[in-house]
Every structure is written in structure tokens, then in C-alpha cells.
Design goal:
heterodimer, A: mainly alpha, MetI-like fold, 2 domains, 14 helices, globular, B: alpha/beta, D-Maltodextrin-Binding Protein, domain 2, 7-stranded mixed beta sheet, 4-stranded mixed beta sheet, 16 helices, 11 strands
């Protein structure tokens, strides 16, 4: 009897939209408002400022800030660095995720931790380790100088620092995916006589492609936007070793606000494009599953 | 579909590689390049100097000269050269930074400062005051900075070369007043007590300035932005060239310059980095480049970018811009950079002691 009454009460509560649900509607509304205000203040306002300042003196001035040879060189260097770093880290990321996701071996957890290292250390440290290695007083400094090879304060150093900082992005994206998907289909393919490469391109790659695209996008965004590590190894030689983020700082310090924000707006556009592709990829990936 | 995506990506990479390949220049015999590692305030100056000198070099030798340029805080630029940044010439804010390039790694000779005329300083500057338009606090000279209602904006001497000049200018101005302008008393055993009293007065004055300083930025440009853009403080201690540039670019309706009766002669020095020019075979062009700064053309360019020319004739032509005032050198008032550093800015030295009072 008592049990029956309880059941009835529970059923009643579930059916009727009572005071509790009303409170939760208010709470929900409050949370949404707070988040939106927060976003507006911290995200949209600065974004608008970037474009407003860039276009302050008109569209022609905005366009002409990209005609400066140093600015063009900075854009070209940023694209070069990304073009070298992103493919390398993609290959590394797939290899690492493959090893971790598909095999069991000693030191696996150590490898996972090491992959996370670049995210954990400050970018300044990431830059300084290369100065300590390849600087004139570093381990390889004298040998490099005798053989006339420049690494830091030149493009190779910038590539290395960026490579280090963007190391984890593809791997971190793929490892959980690989682990979750398991080995069954690959084993089936190999049993049916497919070789390693064929299995990879026709079985594994299609399964992980959206995760891969997502990782590559994040890796690219970080590679183009990295400031700290690159700043340490760059040497700030105009038109030669300044990437876009460094060039923004230089222009700003020269009271050249319009050009500084014009280049910044290009980086901002990259961020927006990244977000759009990310949303698209998530939507595609979701629909496929 | 996947393959086409991969193909397109590959194509993009190839295109980018081709694009960047076009940009790299070939090393032909008639082309030569040098790297000038400089500090923040000289960006505008060297842009013009480089164009002018490259043209002249081509007329004289037929070689196409490219002068690459790097700017940053004077101390960190020196650090980069010590770590291997291949600078053919350095043009920094203070001799102490070039001394440390010599000390750490011997990349240039100890007598570098005697290799070019006038202590290897082709142009000079000094420390002046930037105040709000109309000078509402009526700041005229150094003693006004000691008033309780005046907030002084200056960067941190630990990190900024300009800030060290500010600090030493303030200190030296008090010494100058207390000693009646007679610097020889500093070395005169008979005047020991008078000198000690003057040093104590200077210390008290400088302590007051830092006690009332609202912020200590890490660099000179940062301090200028604090004063001008963020509207903090009543007076900014600044390089004369930075103050004039800020006035030109940011407008006369916000700020004005006050030149004190006495200040420090700031000598930003230049030097050829021996190990680099000998390895690259660029000694001749690097030395010609620095000597060019002393020619009338180089001196005119310095004046145009608000540095005081050291050539008396060129300076005379620009007297309207550079107001005459009593200038003392770091050598006369402090016995040189190494000594000034040791007494005032080293860990636990006077600057640490007087800012410790504030904590």
C-alpha cells in the first residue's frame, strides 16, 4: 500500500510541470544570458575592434598595408612554416596514434605523456631549448658555425620551434579514435590478403578521416599563430625571420596601428575559418556515425 | 572523394613551396648582405639610413647591398647576439650591452669603443620630460619631480636600457645641483663629505620618484603607451628622440615636451662584430656602413629622426629642434657603465634597496 502510494506520487511528479522545472527554466535562462554576455564582452568585442581598427582609415589603406614587402615576407614565411610543419606532424600524429591505438608495448603510457609535453610547457621554454641546443654556446653551436649552418635566428629554427609546439594536435585527436575503433576491420582486411598500405588507405584512413581533418586544422591554426616559441628563436630580422604574429607586434610598436591590425585581421580570419571548418567537420562526423 | 582531397592538399603544398622558392634570392658575386642588430627606438632611422647607404655603396662598388634589420629591447638584442644571432654590426642603446657581448664569448675586441669617433656614438640623445598638454602640474625642471603631487612614469631599469638612462639622469641632475656643477669634486679627496651629502640627496630624490611611480613598464615604448594612451601619470621620463616621435605621431594636442636645465648625454654606441664580419668577409662594408653614420648625410638623417647629431655643423642647423641644455656624461658622473651598473642596477644594489623600501 505504502509502496503503491510512492509510485503514484513519483508518476504524478513526472507528469506535472511543477515548481522545480520552473526554477530550472530560470536557471537555464540565467546561464545562457551569462554565457552570451561573457562571450560578447571577451570574444566579439575584441574581434570587432580588430576589424574596426584595421578599416579605420578606409578600405584602400587596409589593402595597401599588405603591399609592404616586409608584410608579404611575413605572410610567406608563415605559410612556408605551416606547409612544412603540418604535413610532418600529420605523419607523426598518425604514426603515434597507430602505435598507441593498435598495439600494446612497454612504455606506452610514457609515450602518451611525452606527446602531451609541448602543451604542458610554456612556449618560451620551447623556444629556449633550441637556443640552448643550437645557440653559439649550445651543445651543437660551434660545430654548426664551423660548417656554416644556421638553425636558430633563421628559418630552420622557426620551423623546429613550431614543429615542437604543434606536435600533439594530430596525435591527441587520433589516439582516442583509434583506441575506440579497435582492430577488427584491419584484421579482416589483412586476412583477405590486403597489404599494409592498402589496409591503411582503404580501411583505416576512411574511418579516421574526420578526426584527422580536425587535428590538422587545429595544428595549422597553432602553427600560424604561434608567438612565444617563435619569438625566442626568430632574431626578429625584418623580412626574413618575422612571422605574421611577430610582424603584428613590430608594426604596433612602430605606431603603425592600421597595418598592425590589418595583419591581425588576417590571423583573425584564419581563426574564424578554422572554427567554421571545425563546426562543419563535427557536423559531418556526427551525421556519419 | 578522399583521394581528390588528398590530391588537392598535395597540390596546395607544391604551390606554396613554389611560391616561397621564388622569394629566396640567389647568392651571386655582386650581391652582399649585412645584418644590423639594433634597439627599439631606431627603426625609423635605420630604414632611411639603409636605403641611402645601399644606394651609395652600389654607386661606388657596383655591388648590390642588402641591409637586414632586427629591432628589440637593447638588452635582449645583445643576448641574441651572444647566443649566435649573426650580426655584422650592432647599434644598441647603451655601451653596457655591447660590453656584455665582449664579456660573454669575445665576439668583439675590448677596445671596440675607441674604433669609431666620439666614443663610437655617431648620434646622441638625452632624457627629457613629456607632460600633459598645457602642463597642468607646472613641471619645469628636476626639483618638480620630487613634489608629492607629481607621479612620474618610467620603465623598469632592470629590464629597460632607456629606464637606466632615466634613473641616471635624475640621480646626476641632483649631483650637479648639489656640487654646484663642479664634477671634479667627485674625485677630490678634500670634498668627500660634500660628495657624500650630494649622493644622499640624490638617493632620496630618486627613491621618491620610484615610490610615487604608478607602474614600472618593462620597456620604453610600453611606458610611452602607458602615459599617452592609458593617460596614467603626470610626467613621462623619455628619450628625447622617443618624446619627439611620440609628439609627431600622436599629436600636439595631448602632450608637450619640457626640457630640463641639465640632463644626461645618452650615447647609443655602434660596433662591428669581429667574429661575424671575419667569417662572412663583410668587414669592409660593415665598417663603411658605420662610418657613413658620421658623414653629413648620415648626420642629417639622424637629426631628421630626432637624434642629436654629433657633427657640430649639422647640429647647429637643427638648433630649433634640439634645445640647448647642460649635459653630463655617464663617465663624468658615474665613472662609466660598468661601474654605474655595479653600484645601481646589479642584484642587491641601490635600485633594489630603494624599491625594497616600497614593498
Amino acid at each position: 500500500m505504502a509502496i503503491g502510494a510512492d509510485k503514484e506520487m513519483l508518476a504524478e511528479l513526472a507528469r506535472r510541470p511543477g515548481r522545480d522545472t520552473l526554477t530550472s527554466a530560470i536557471v537555464k535562462g540565467a546561464f545562457i544570458t551569462v554565457s552570451l554576455l561573457f562571450l560578447a564582452a571577451l570574444l566579439f568585442a575584441p574581434l570587432i575592434t580588430v576589424f574596426a581598427t584595421a578599416l579605420e582609415k578606409g578600405f584602400d589603406v587596409y589593402i595597401s598595408s599588405f603591399k609592404d614587402s616586409d608584410t608579404l615576407a611575413a605572410i610567406r614565411l608563415t605559410l612556408t612554416v605551416a606547409a612544412i610543419v603540418v604535413p610532418l606532424n600529420t605523419i607523426f600524429g598518425i604514426a603515434a596514434a597507430w602505435a598507441i591505438g593498435k598495439f600494446e608495448f612497454r612504455g606506452k603510457s610514457v609515450l602518451i605523456t611525452l606527446i602531451d609535453l609541448p602543451i604542458a610547457v610554456s612556449p618560451v621554454i620551447s623556444g629556449l631549448i633550441y637556443v640552448l641546443l643550437f645557440g653559439i654556446h649550445g651543445w651543437f653551436g660551434l660545430w654548426l658555425q664551423e660548417n656554416d649552418i644556421s638553425i636558430i635566428y633563421a628559418v630552420p629554427g622557426i620551423v623546429l620551434a613550431t614543429l615542437f609546439v604543434t606536435f600533439p594536435y594530430v596525435a591527441r585527436e587520433l589516439i582516442p579514435l583509434m583506441e575506440q575503433l579497435g582492430n577488427d576491420e584491419e584484421e579482416a582486411a589483412i586476412t583477405l590478403g590486403a597489404g599494409g598500405l592498402m589496409t591503411f588507405f582503404h580501411v583505416t584512413l576512411p574511418k579516421i578521416r574526420w578526426g584527422l581533418v580536425y587535428g590538422v586544422i587545429l595544428c595549422n591554426a597553432r602553427a600560424m599563430g604561434e608567438f612565444g616559441a617563435v619569438s625566442v628563436v626568430s632574431g626578429h630580422i625584418r623580412g626574413l625571420t618575422t612571422t605574421m604574429p611577430l610582424h603584428v607586434e613590430i608594426l604596433y610598436n612602430e605606431y603603425n596601428f592600421v597595418s598592425a591590425f590589418a595583419v591581425a585581421s588576417l590571423l583573425t580570419l584564419l581563426a574564424v575559418v578554422t572554427l567554421v571548418i571545425k563546426t562543419f567537420v563535427e557536423w559531418r562526423g556526427y551525421r556519419k556515425r | 572523394m578522399l583521394q581528390s582531397v588528398a590530391e588537392r592538399l598535395l597540390l596546395l603544398v607544391i604551390l606554396l613551396a613554389a611560391l616561397t622558392g621564388c622569394g629566396s634570392s640567389d647568392d651571386s658575386q655582386d650581391a652582399i648582405s649585412i645584418l644590423n642588430v639594433s634597439y627599439d627606438a631606431t627603426r625609423e632611422l635605420y630604414r632611411e639610413v639603409n636605403a641611402e647607404f645601399a644606394a651609395q655603396w652600389r654607386r661606388e662598388t657596383g655591388q648590390i647591398l642588402t641591409i637586414k634589420q632586427s629591432h628589440g629591447g637593447s638588452g635582449s638584442q645583445a643576448r641574441a647576439v651572444i647566443d649566435g644571432l649573426p650580426a655584422d654590426v650592432v647599434t644598441l642603446a647603451l655601451a653596457y650591452d655591447i660590453n656584455s657581448i665582449h664579456r660573454n664569448g669575445k665576439r668583439l675586441a675590448p677596445n671596440w669603443q675607441t674604433r669609431f669617433p666620439r666614443d663610437s656614438s655617431p648620434y646622441t640623445s638625452t632624457i627629457v620630460f613629456l607632460v600633459r598638454a598645457g602642463n597642468p602640474k607646472n613641471i619645469r625642471d628636476w626639483p618638480d619631480l620630487g613634489r608629492a603631487d607629481v607621479e612620474v612614469v618610467t620603465p623598469n631599469p632592470k629590464t629597460s636600457g632607456g629606464a637606466r638612462w632615466n634613473y641616471l639622469a635624475a640621480w646626476g641632475a641632483v649631483l650637479y645641483r648639489e656640487l654646484g656643477g663642479d664634477w671634479s669634486k667627485l674625485d677630490d679627496p678634500a670634498a668627500t663629505e660634500e660628495v657624500a651629502a650630494a649622493q644622499a640627496a640624490a638617493r632620496e630624490f630618486v627613491t621618491g620618484i620610484y615610490a610615487r611611480a604608478p607602474v614600472l613598464d618593462s620597456g620604453a615604448r610600453g611606458a610611452t603607451n602607458t602615459f599617452v594612451q592609458r593617460n596614467i601619470g603626470d610626467v613621462l621620463l623619455a628619450w628625447e628622440n622617443e618624446a619627439l616621435l611620440a609628439l609627431e605621431t600622436l599629436g600636439h594636442d595631448h602632450v608637450e615636451i619640457v626640457v630640463p636645465t641639465v640632463s644626461i648625454l645618452a650615447q647609443p654606441p655602434v660596433a662591428v662584430v669581429d667574429t661575424v664580419v671575419d667569417r662572412r668577409g663583410t668587414r669592409q662594408v660593415a665598417e663603411a656602413y658605420l662610418r657613413f653614420l658620421y658623414t653629413p648625410t648620415g648626420q642629417e638623417l639622424a637629426a631628421k629622426h630626432y637624434f642629436r647629431p654629433t657633427d657640430p655643423e649639422v647640429l647647429a642647423r637643427h638648433r630649433d629642434k634640439f634645445i640647448e641644455l647642460e649635459l653630463f656624461t655617464i663617465q663624468t658622473a658615474f665613472g662609466g657603465w660598468d661601474k654605474a651598473h655595479e653600484t645601481h642596477f646589479a642584484d642587491g644594489a641601490i635600485f633594489d634597496q630603494i624599491t625594497g623600501v616600497r614593498r
